[in-house]
Design goal:
Mean pLDDT: 92
Distance between the termini: 33 Å
Number of strands: 5
Radius of gyration: 14 Å
CATH class: Alpha Beta
Structural class: alpha+beta
Number of domains: 1
Strand content: 35-45%
Shape: globular
Number of helices: 2
CATH topology: Trna Endonuclease, Chain: A, domain 1
């Protein structure tokens, strides 16, 4: 597997761990609908959170959360709509980004709530 795929998997695992430690329950990982994918679907109480995870090993070009494009946000929202419908979710939802920076043995996780609507 390519190094960037391994980095992405490591970032998603760290994001899931971070959210679980913050009291979230991970409902799904890599939920797919057509061409869209949601990295993590988490729940905290009656709030369902769709999470885009961005991982970077080099911050020279910007922070990980800055790399979520408008097009990616639209795809996540499309997949979220399908998830909400198929799971008959009747409560609040939110779209977050978890940004993971890995530099050698240093790891930093940043949770951006309400990242896009």
């Amino acid at each position: 597997m390519a190094q960037h795929n391994e980095t992405g998997k490591q970032g998603e695992a760290e994001a899931a761990r971070f959210l679980q430690e913050a009291g979230y329950e991970i409902m799904a990982r890599n939920f797919r609908h057509q061409h869209a994918e949601i990295d993590l679907v988490a729940k905290k109480g009656t709030l369902l959170v769709f999470v885009e995870v961005k991982t970077r090993t080099n911050l020279s070009f910007g922070n990980p959360e800055e790399f979520v494009s408008y097009g990616k946000a639209k795809l996540v929202m499309k997949a979220a709509e399908h998830y909400i419908f198929t799971h008959n979710w009747q409560f609040d939802v939110r779209f977050d980004i978890v940004a993971v920076s890995i530099a050698g043995s240093q790891l930093h996780v940043k949770h951006v709530e309400d990242a896009f609507c």
